[in-house]
Every structure is written in C-alpha cells, then in structure tokens.
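Team,

Forwarding the record for the chain on the shared tracking sheet. I've put the sequence and predicted structure together so nobody has to dig through attachments.
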Amino acid sequence: MSSADFGSLTLQLSLLLVTAHVLGYLFARLRQPRVIGEILAGVLLGPSILGTFAPHLSAVVFPPTDAPTSPHQVVLSFLYSLGLLLLMFVSGTEMRGLFHRDDRRQVAWLASMGTVVPFAVALLAAPLLPLERLIGPAQQRTALVLVIGIAVAVTSIPVISRILHDLGILGTRFARLVLGVAVLEDVALWAVLAIATTLAASGDVRVTEIVQHVAITVAFLGFGLFLAPRLLRIAGAARWNVIGANSPVAYAVVVLLVFAALGDALDVSLVFAAFLAGFALSADGPRMSEALESVKKFSFAVFVPIYFAVVGYQLDLSRNFSLSMLVVFLAAACALKLFAAGTGARLAGFGWRSSVNLAVATNARGGPGIVLASVAFDAQIINAPFFTTLVLSAVLTSQAAGFWLEYVLRRRWPLLDEDAAKVSGTTADQRLAA
C-alpha cells in the first residue's frame, strides 16, 4: 500500500467514524437506537446520497474500484468483518445472567411461539413466494428460504438492549424476559444461518452432506454452550496462562480468534463462532468482566460503528431499492411476528397490554437482522434489492420498538400486568392508611 493509498484510506475511515458517531449521538438524544444513525452515516456517504448529489466529491473521497484486491477494499472488508465478529462476540458475552427461575416458563412460551411459529410459517409459505425476485447469484433456493425464515423470526440482542438501557428499564423483569427470548432465538437462528451459508457455498449438496453439516453445527453449538465455558474457566485460572494473567483483554481477543479459526476449519459460520466465543468466555466470572467490558467499549467506539456505517454505505437506494418489496415483506413479517409473540405472551399468562408490549419489543430485528442481511448478501444467497429490504426492515422495526416503549413509559402505562398490580396495591395501601 502506497502512502497515497494509506492517506486516502485514513480519510475514508475518519469520515465514516465521525459521521457514525455524530448521527448515532443525535439519534440517541432523540431516544432512537444509535445503530440507525450509524447506518444512516454510511447511507449519507455512500452512493445513495453523496454519490447521487455530489458524484465528483464522492469519487475523490471514495475512489470507485471494482477490484476486490485493491488496498481500500481489502482494509475496509477486514474492518467490516472484524466489526461484525466483535459485535457478535459482545452479544455472546451478554447472554449470561439473563435467565431467572421465575421467568423460565414465560420465556419458553415467548421463544417457542415467537420464534418457531414465524420460522415454520415462512418455510411453509416458500412455494407461494416469488423467490426469483429475491435470490442471489448462488442460486440456492433452500438457503434463501432459510434466510427468509430467520429474517421473519429474529430478535435483536444489541439494539433492544440499547433501547432498554436508554429508557432506564434494563434491570426490570420486562427487560429480562425480552432479552431471554432474544438469546434463545439467536442461538437457534445462527445455527440455521450457518447451514444456509454452507449450502450457498457448496451448491447442490447431498442429503448426507447436509446431515453431516447439521451434526457438526450442533456439536459445535454444544461445545460452545457447555464444554468451552468449563475449559476457559480452567484455562483462565491456570498458572501457565501468562496472557490471561497479564493482559485479559488480549486473552479475550485470542479466544475470539481461536473460535473463529475453529469455526472456519469446521465450515461453521464465523459469526456463529464469535457469538459462542463471547458466551463461553463470559462464564469466567468477575475475573474477565472488566476485560470484556473494555473490549465492548473499544468495539462499540471504533469497529462496530464502522461495520454499521459500511452496511449503510453498501445500500444503493437509487438503484437497489424496491418500495413494493419493502412494504410487502415488512407488513407480512411484522404481522406474523407480532401475532406469534403476542399469542405466546397470552399463553404465558400475560394480559393484552403486556402481550402487546412484549410482542413489539421482540419484533425489533436490529443488529442481528442487519448481520443476517450482510452475511446472506456476502454469501450471495440474496440479491441487492432484498439485502436493502432486510436492512431497512431491521432499522424500521427497531425504531418502532423504541418509539412504542418510550410512548408507553411516557404515558406511565405499566409494561407488565404485575407492575400494574403493584401500583394498584400501593394505591390501595395508601388509601387505607389515610
């Protein structure tokens, strides 16, 4: 890489990072998910806005190139992939400590109905869908159907966590229920995505190969959920672990890279591997909590905003946008998800108002929805218009969830029925005392 190339690259990165943080800050001030502002930063700097209204300036700042091996493309692709891995790694670390014994039955109902039903309906409706309008260059219809099912059923961990945190309700039972459901959904759906990407890479594979890959994926899942946490606890306390003792942050990054390398060797999605790495390492307890928090802060300060900005940069709304596709998919996916999650909440024993709140919160697709779109697009499972549709659907559903929850709190309505009962009980006690 020449000095001119490096200087041009630093200008691109600084613009992406500054714009992502400024717009993310503005959206956070408006009580909206920061991720929307970060994606909008890429849209503004990309072909949709800057490339359309100031093409000469765009060509100077972001020189056009079709060569995937050009220095700019290689570095941006690396930072994009690293940001994606760090995002899923941090998401995995947040899985610990969510489940409470009193929440298990409700979470089970919400997750089973809110995830399994939309996913199954999407698979059953596949013969009725115009897949030729959505399919990518890989021409793998089975992988495309799986991606559609995931897109309908997925719930965001990072975005909904940020929304709950910004609204000051992250420590409530409502937040525990929503995040518990999101955790179970993401574990299952990332396994399905790993199968879809393998199908796309392998073309027409035999049933035995699919079964073999499913077995490997499930085994890797079992390793990441049950065996790896114990092994990492032992390794973290071992005297020979010089890196873990002297630089826990470096140790956390090494674990992430090892999991990613192992996933690549087993032909399992690197995104899924990074997610499990975070989950396994979080079991090391307080010893690693400070290091994981440092990784999280630096990741969300640098690499994750660049990842979301590059996602927005890839959106060419002037050429790869279909309003009819967005409206139809968004309406169908939201209706199915809201109905299924709301039904699950009712079966779990919640009232109508609580069921609506839970359904709207779990309908936020956010980060995982965007990750799904980018991974499926990179694997050539979906085409550019459907990639744009999935990203915009993730953004709009997240914004809707944040708006609704903020509206409920502003009106001082309870998020759960039990909150209303507590308020009523407190009011009755006050009246008796008077």
